[in-house]
């Protein structure tokens, strides 16, 4: 039976930052502004003493001024935030390492996948020779490498590249799971972050699976003897896309531990800008995925001119494949055409956003995000054009790939600044 009612006003909702202030009956909750864990402990004590007590949580109306923006973040949140940023940084590293592995044609050097056994590379001369012999059975060696003067030491180089990428992936797993278990055992993680961390763990496992699923496609015999043995562009795009999502999730959750919600006016101008910011993030992601198709098909090695493709705006073989839909994923011309125009649209949208937001009352940190986004958008497009004009040199292509992640980071940051108080 309910004996009395406690009214509590929720001041802040960012995931690990539920600061609460008590408005009635709660003399026992000594501090009016305490962090989530302390508050939880205190409220449990009160509930134990007063059997049947119920609590009503009153949320503030959107857009009203609360002291949430100025409330300090707890030490625990900062530690969790630093850890999440660390995980995001490690994902970033994995993307760069994966890109360089692909660009140095090292990705198919390890011809099987075992969680623990893979961790021990060949040691003796005999083990290396056995591993090299195994590699020689697979299509990449049979159709491409065999023609070259390829020695055991060349094999060691490509093997260590792939080994490094796989070990880095495992290290992300450890760097995520061990601290997560610690924070959970300490009760530092609130309910909403618990769900998010479970999502991260699932995606991390899925990312490893996709990596092997992608490599497997490059180890199979190609249908035609003229086909170049390479991984499926669909699987490459899925592997890259899921890495970008995982990275963005870590980054978003990390930002939430440090950056308070802005108290933005609820005007139509602000709503328009918010929608545009989310569209930029979405379009950047789609452009990046289309870039993975360019990389997967080596489509950067055709039509090495800009802005026209050869001397035409619309190349003659744009829809050469049948059925038509196949062109968008399998025809190098169409795939490159799409990537160019998606990229140009992304940069135009960013420029339009920058222009439209000039007179909006944005806080200084938001203004910084907008400027950074515009600068990076222009730089990324220049990197892409240079990569194309110079026939995809490895250092430039790898920089272009990392640039896409930096651009996505600024878009994530900007949309994070537009975060609303949860209902
Ligand atoms: C918003 C701008 C852009 C973004 C976000 C972006 C993103 C990407 C990504 C993620 C890749 C895949 C890299 C990999 O997996 O190794 C890629 C590849 C590529 N992009 Fe872009 N790109 C942009 C602009 C451009 C532009 C304007 C061009 C040229 C007109 C271009 C040309 C290329 C080429 C040639 C590749 C293939 C490189 C390779 O084979 O490794 N990109 N892009």
TrEMBL record:
Which protein is depicted? Cytochrome c oxidase assembly protein COX15-like protein
Q: Which UniProt keywords apply?
A: Heme biosynthesis, Iron, Membrane, Metal-binding, Oxidoreductase, Transmembrane, Transmembrane helix
Cofactor dependency: heme b
- Is NAD a UniProt keyword of this protein? no
Q: Which InterPro entries match?
A: COX15/CtaA_fam, HemeA_Synthase_type2
Subcellular compartments: Membrane
Species whose genome carries this gene: Magallana gigas
> Its catalytic activity?
Fe(II)-heme o + 2 A + H2O = Fe(II)-heme a + 2 AH2
Question: Pfam families in the record, alphabetically?
Answer: COX15-CtaA
């Amino acid at each position: 039976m309910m004996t009395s009612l406690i009214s509590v006003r929720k001041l802040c909702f960012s995931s690990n930052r539920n600061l609460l202030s008590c408005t009635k009956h709660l003399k026992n909750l000594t501090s009016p502004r305490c962090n989530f864990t302390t508050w939880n402990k205190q409220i449990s004590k009160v509930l134990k003493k007063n059997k049947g007590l119920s609590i009503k949580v009153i949320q503030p109306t959107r857009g009203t001024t609360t002291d949430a923006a100025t409330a300090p973040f707890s030490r625990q949140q900062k530690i969790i935030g630093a850890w999440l940023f660390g995980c995001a940084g490690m994902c970033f590293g994995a993307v760069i390492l994966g890109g360089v592995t692909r660009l140095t044609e090292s990705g198919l050097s390890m011809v099987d996948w075992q969680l623990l056994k893979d961790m021990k590379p060949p040691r003796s001369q005999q083990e290396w020779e056995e591993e090299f012999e195994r590699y020689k059975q697979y299509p990449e060696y049979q159709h491409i490498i065999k023609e070259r003067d390829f020695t055991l030491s060349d094999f060691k180089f490509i093997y260590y590249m792939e080994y490094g990428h796989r070990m880095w992936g495992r290290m992300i797993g450890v760097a995520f799971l061990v601290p997560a278990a610690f924070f959970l055992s300490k009760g530092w993680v609130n309910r909403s972050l618990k769900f998010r961390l479970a999502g991260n763990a699932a995606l991390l496992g899925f990312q490893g699976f996709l990596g092997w699923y992608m490599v497997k496609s490059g180890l199979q015999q190609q249908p035609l003897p003229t086909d170049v043995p390479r991984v499926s562009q669909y699987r490459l795009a899925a592997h890259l896309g899921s890495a970008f999502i995982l990275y963005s999730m870590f980054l978003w959750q990390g930002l939430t531990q440090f950056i308070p919600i802005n108290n933005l006016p609820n005007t139509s101008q602000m709503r328009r800008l918010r929608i545009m910011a989310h569209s930029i993030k979405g379009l950047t992601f789609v452009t990046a995925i289309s870039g993975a198709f360019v990389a997967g098909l080596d489509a950067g090695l055709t039509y090495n001119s800009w802005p026209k493709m050869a001397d035409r705006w619309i190349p003659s073989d744009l829809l050469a494949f049948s059925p038509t839909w196949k062109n968008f994923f399998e025809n190098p011309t169409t795939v490159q055409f799409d990537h160019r125009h998606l990229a140009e649209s992304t940069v135009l949208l960013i420029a339009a956003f920058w222009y439209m937001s000039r007179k909006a009352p944005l806080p200084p940190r938001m203004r910084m995000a907008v400027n950074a986004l515009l600068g990076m958008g222009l730089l990324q497009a220049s990197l892409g054009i240079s990569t194309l004009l110079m026939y995809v040199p490895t250092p430039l292509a790898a920089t272009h790939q990392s640039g896409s992640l930096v651009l996505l980071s600024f878009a994530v940051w900007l949309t994070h600044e537009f975060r609303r108080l949860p209902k």
